[in-house]
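Researcher: We're reviewing a set of sequences before deciding which ones to prioritize for further study. For each one, I'd like a predicted 3D structure that I can look through quickly. This is Cyn operon transcriptional activator. If possible, include the structure in token form so it fits the rest of the review sheet.
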Amino acid sequence: MAQPPLSKRIQELEDELRTPLFLRHGNRIEPTEAGFFLYRKACEILRQVEDAARETTEIAQKDRPYFRFGMSHLFQSYFKPLLLALYQRYPEIEINISVTDSSHLEGLLNEGAIDLAFIQRPYRSEGFDFVSFDPVKLVAVINKQCLPEPPANPFDYHALGQMPLVLLHRAKDSGTYEMLIDLFRKSGVDP
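Model: Here's the predicted structure for Cyn operon transcriptional activator, in token form for your review sheet.
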């Protein structure tokens, strides 16, 4: 969408909701708390629409065998090639893949909307059967302005926790963020 129609539509939406959705700073904008809330809710609604469309298609194609996978963004690069190979080997089976955060996938498993998920260990593991794989290595990516020379040895949690960090946080429940914060605190740092 071109900039003027988009700006006009945003303004109409703000007028309709009677609240600003963005803070404007010259040519820059950033979402207000209400704007960010609306964005998250809109994403959730879009996921629900996609799920409803998928489930409707599944009902229409009940005779064709299908398998519904879910995977978190973290595991996408690991398992997508395997799922592609599975599809090529068994083209008669319809394979549906949902990529979203782990807590959403846990909900889809509970609802029966997917058959299998590649995620971090569930926050609440009761009600799930799971198989553990070799752990995925997490890496810290550091801007050269913060660290011009690579360190001689790997960072420990204490040293890493003292750096400016950007960490992803699950929409709900616990995940890698909470695990890292806990490890930082155990090493004596409160990032």
